[in-house]
Design brief:
By secondary structure, this protein is an alpha/beta fold. It folds into 2 domains: about 65-195, Threonyl-tRNA Synthetase, Chain A, domain 2 (2-Layer Sandwich), CATH 3.30.980; about 220-460, 3-Layer(aba) Sandwich (Rossmann fold). It has 11 helices and 16 strands. It has a 10-stranded mixed sheet. A 4-stranded antiparallel sheet has the order 3-4-6-5. The protein has a two-stranded antiparallel sheet with strand order 1-2. The longest helix has about 30 residues, at about 90-120. The protein starts with about 25 loop residues before the first helix and ends in an 8-residue tail after the last helix. Bound molecules: adenosine-5'-triphosphate (ATP) and magnesium ion. Magnesium ion binds near residues 248 and 280. The site of magnesium ion (MG) has 4 residues, from α6.
Length: about 475
């Protein structure tokens, strides 16, 4: 008689089946062999994985056995002496190829590996599926003088944003200062950057001035990874947002300095608006082609003059070129506005306000291709104050007062991806976040700071050939 009756077309009944598990009798010596085999395989894997420890240790044991302790001590001393000499002769290559790879390997084992499983579980990055626990795999650790870059294999279902949210928590778990996550080149990986000390803590001195500025790469400050932050001005408009005393002035002066070579040769004309009474920028008058402050009517007039220039140029270039190339006869016009809200929101004369808004809207929307760029600083990025926010393709977010302002300035989701403008301390002016071409995550930058003396020198060395603005 069949054990189960299956009726065609019917559901298979789920009554418990009488399954008998076969019994195997394994002799004790075989079990012992399997354990020993497994243990040996594990030792070999560990020895290969940590070759940088096992190879020198093995060599040391061999030298001692073959030639004695004295030779071993002498060999260690010679090796140490070689490293010290390398460090003294060429510190950069010693650190890059000698010291930091060792530090990275050591920190991988000692700092990360040790607490990895528990950190993953407590930060919500491990998963349980079907009774099994899954932990993201720890990859390479690369160290430098400021921190560690840790590569991690993502678990299925995770995205880099999950790690960006957990990164500060992870940093504290590993007892480090600050942590951020970046999407890696391969889509199954994420790179974590943990800081041991802040590379942007020190003041950034003014950067060298190029005789002919490269408008696609104007040096303005230092990035967290130690590279120079270069602004792409060609084809763009720039918004600098930051609370009072956040260092907007230093961004503007860094930019003026980056353009200085072009100002002296006549390739660049600076049209400057300093509505807060000319306090910030008056010192640079000999560098400016136009300088307007205080009088709203005059500011509207200068903006309208820029619109006229832009229209003439557009008419001339139409059909012959799609991107203006600056020459002394036809220079790049850079319109610098220190406090944009003073032009767009705080003016009481409605007629003048309308004129300014119209001119600014035209310059922002049509100026890029014809070499007319607007660079505007702003304290309050709320929509009411700045109706043109979306016309600025490039934005810099310095210290901001509220969390919500970060996404207003740098775009939706920027704060979640790591632009913590609201957490920049007041004691660190000139630090901000920028978006880089082709990089999802905002990058932290410190802009160079020009003292009054630096400004005086800049003005003396790079004044306009035809004299400064009135
Ligand atoms: N890059 C920088 N590095 C170091 N210190 C800076 C930097 N930028 C600004 N500071 C310091 O912070 C102070 C305020 O900077 P700044 O005047 O540029 O701020 P701001 O954002 O323009 O403020 P406000 O909105 O009031 O005009 C400066 O006096 C200077 O001492
Ligand atoms: Mg200012």
């Amino acid at each position: 008689m069949p054990l189960i009756n299956v009726i065609p077309g019917d559901k298979i009944p789920t009554a418990p089946l009488n399954v008998r598990v076969p019994m195997w009798r394994v002799p004790g010596w075989l079990m012992l062999l399997v354990w020993i085999g497994r243990g040996l395989a594990r030792v070999v894997v560990l020895a290969v994985r940590y070759w940088w420890l096992t190879v020198p240790a093995g060599l040391a044991v061999w030298v001692r056995a073959e030639y004695g302790t004295v030779v071993l001590v002498a060999a260690v001393l010679v090796l140490t002496g070689g490293c010290v000499t390398w460090w003294q002769l060429h510190p950069a290559s010693w650190l890059r190829f000698g010291w930091y790879p060792l530090v990275g390997r050591w920190r991988r084992v000692w700092v990360y590996r040790r607490r990895w499983a528990s950190a993953m579980a407590t930060c919500g990055l491990a998963t349980v599926f079907d009774g099994d626990r899954y932990i993201p795999r720890l990859g390479k650790v690369r160290s430098d003088s400021f921190g560690d870059e840790v590569t991690v294999r993502l678990l299925p279902g995770q995205i880099p944003d999950d790690w960006a949210t957990a990164a500060p928590r992870l940093a504290y778990t590993f007892r480090l200062r600050d942590g951020r996550a970046y999407a890696a080149a391969k889509p199954d990986r994420v790179t974590l950057r943990f800081l041991r000390r802040d590379p942007l803590a020190a003041l950034v001195a003014p950067l060298p001035v190029a005789g002919v500025p490269d408008f696609t790469a104007l040096p303005l400050g230092i990035r967290e990874d130690g590279d120079v932050y270069q602004l792409r001005l060609t084809g763009s408009q720039l918004l600098i947002a930051g609370a009072t005393n956040s260092g907007k002035g230093s961004v503007i002066w860094s930019l003026i300095r980056a353009l200085a070579g072009g100002i002296r040769s006549g390739l660049v004309e600076l049209w400057v608006f300093d509505p807060k009474g000319g306090m910030e920028l008056a010192a640079g008058t000999p560098l400016f082609a136009r300088f307007a402050y205080e009088d709203p009517d005059r500011m509207a007039g200068v903006l309208e003059e820029a619109v006229k220039r832009m229209r003439h140029r557009a008419a001339r270039l139409r059909g012959t070129s799609r991107q203006h190339v600056p020459t002394p006869a036809d220079p790049l016009i850079v319109i610098l506005i220190d406090e944009l809200a003073a032009l767009t929101a705080y003016i009481t004369d409605r007629k003048v306000k309308e004129r300014i808004k119209e001119a600014l809207g035209l310059l922002l929307s049509q100026g890029r291709a014809v070499g007319v760029h607007v660079i505007a600083a702003l304290q309050d990025p709320r929509k009411e104050v700045l109706p043109f926010r979306n016309l600025f393709p490039t934005r810099i977010g310095l210290r901001l007062v509220e969390k919500e302002e970060v996404d207003m300035v740098l775009g939706d989701g920027a704060r979640d991806r790591g632009a913590l403008c609201d957490q920049i301390p007041e004691t660190a002016p000139g630090i901000g976040y920028v978006a880089l071409d082709g990089v999802r995550e905002p990058v932290r930058v410190r802009f160079s700071y020009l003292t009054d003396h630096d400004i005086t020198q800049l003005v003396r060395d790079y004044a306009r050939p035809g004299g400064g603005a009135l």
